[in-house]
Specification:
Elements: E1 3-5, E2 18-21, E3 24-27, H1 48-57, E4 62-63, H2 69-75, E5 78-79, H3 81-84, E6 97-99, H4 102-114
Antiparallel strand pairs: 1-6, 2-3, 4-5
Length: about 120
């Protein structure tokens, strides 16, 4: 699952809570998009077999944790590699991008800085 940095509107018709840490605004919840930026639907993998088939075929897909729609309320949707890297764009607009290495390091650095010194 990719983390998403939020600093603008997302085109999936959902409203996301965010938190500002220094100069960056981070999503406070997981992405819950069912469509790519261009409006094409992202196929849902409803079973473990669907998820596996999408991966083997190199096709984008999303699912709910443990394929349980109730988990979507807490965790949002989970996306496979092909959905995240699809050229139609999962959420890469208006300053939104996936936090892979540098963004994650930035967040960790901030948390460490905010911890009280150990004596």
């Amino acid at each position: 699952m990719a983390s998403i940095l939020f600093s603008g509107a997302i085109s999936d018709q959902n409203v996301y809570n965010s938190i500002k840490i220094e100069k960056l605004e981070w999503m406070a919840e997981n992405l819950n998009a069912s469509f790519f930026r261009n409006g094409d639907p992202i196929p849902e993998a409803r079973t473990d077999e669907d998820w596996s088939a999408a991966g083997k075929e190199g096709k984008p897909a999303w699912c709910y944790y443990e394929n349980n729609i109730e988990n979507g309320k807490k965790y949002g949707k989970l996306y496979n590699w092909y959905a995240i890297n699809d050229p139609r764009g999962l959420a890469r607009s208006a300053g939104i991008y996936q936090v892979m290495q540098n963004g994650g390091r930035l967040l960790i650095s901030w948390v460490v800085k905010m911890l009280p010194e150990q004596r």
